[in-house]
Write a structure and sequence with these properties.
heterodimer; A: 305 residues; alpha+beta; 3 domains; six-stranded mixed sheet; three-stranded antiparallel sheet; B: Rna Polymerase Sigma Factor, Chain: A; Arc Repressor Mutant, subunit A; 2 domains
Amino acid sequence: MTGDTHYDLDTLADLAEGLLDVATARQVREHLAVCDPCGELLADLAAVREVLAATPTPAMPMGVALRIDKALAAEAGSRRGGVGLAEAPDWDELMRDAPWERPNQAPEPARSAAGSEEVAPEPVRLGVVSDDGTVVPAKRRASRGRRWALPAVAAAAAAAVVGTAVVSTNLLASGGDGASAPQVVAQPSTEPTKSLQKAEVRAYTMTDSGYNYSDNVLKQPLESLFGPMPALGGDDASADKVAECADKVSQRSGLDVFTVDQGQYNGSEALIVASWKNQAAKKVRIDIVDPFNCKNLRKPTLGRW
Amino acid sequence: MNSPPETPSAAERPAITDAELLTAHIDGDPHAFSEIVKRHRDRMWAVALRTLGDPDEAADAVQDAFVSAYRKAATFRGEAAVTTWLHRIVVNACLDRMRRKSVRPVADDELIEAAERETPLPDQTVEREVSMEVSAALKLLPADQRAALVLVDMMGYSVEDAAQVLEVPSGTVKSRCARGRAKLAPILSHLRNRTDLNRVSSAKGAELRDG
């Protein structure tokens, strides 16, 4: 390979990586000094490195992060003989309505737990608010066509009947997402369940994703971020702190807070607080505050739901 | 002094090293491992997504990897950094998946389909287009070359670090990178020119494109 013979990309790539022996390397360099096409190929090789280096590496989507948390929680549970869930939430219960779970049946833990065939009185009838504001009884649907708002409420109702502490009633608030989607409400049936009636309903949904938000992530419609998350109950101390911050944000903005996620903002712990600016237009105000003093970590911005 | 003033619990955490967290996990601390996951999941995701070129596969691989790391934390030996160890588990999970998935070469129409699926917005940026083309091109490489290029050229690790992750000699990493770049050069060379064109004068570029 001397004189007017050209070198192939493999050889040139080896040269660039310092893999050629000294004599061959000198030969190739001498050729490159006089050969434009081979110089062009070498530039192409350099461009590959540049293009690869410049390709952005996206952050892990929240759905995947949650899925991994769930798998690890299950792993922790099995390691401790299945009783280690006192601290960790019951992910199977909470996540059953997530898109990747693909539920194909209505959750009915109350009946299976009882183990009997008798038909229990239906605790709540689910209704759908149609566009004109009337409430139409929802059909029991086994398919996943109606997304997860309906099963989520069903799960909350069922959990309340069983007395499980895992799901709190604030799930009821998570169904409302404006005029575009039918709103799922719980409609008292002829025999209302006491536990469900008694429970206090928080005005906003609370979640704990631990997700590390950035300005870029927050530019996308928030529903895609917040929608799949399991809502949390409100028993622990952090819930009080969240409530305090939600109140403060609401006072500052004069808007109604409707969802709060406990996560991070650019690596530091933060609460992501969303308030309706214009619910019909799916416009939200996003406040990012630190969870200790409820101070804004960045200027509040407008976003889309 | 430089730590954030009003974050008592969070301020202490960054001071804990990965190795300490792993030890705490082995000793039964229920929160230690999730802290490790939080710290590294974005990088692990990037490695898996680029190596496998498919978000669903990448999600499976990263999940397998973290669960596997959780289980075998006790076998970690302090010689390597925790990050190297984690990378190794993730990369191996990816390579396993590729091997199991068969060595079947990806057909062109599948690449196009995959590229279309990855197109979420009509107003997609040049960056996004480039990213898609890169993903598609990487899929044409053999697994070992792809893994080496992802670590070295995309993630910016040194050849030595990549060699530790892949558990091969540095020379092997270099030659896999060289082979891979040689294969990608004809496929990606046009990107250089096109992105230049778009960046220099996008209005003029659009005119040219649309006639």
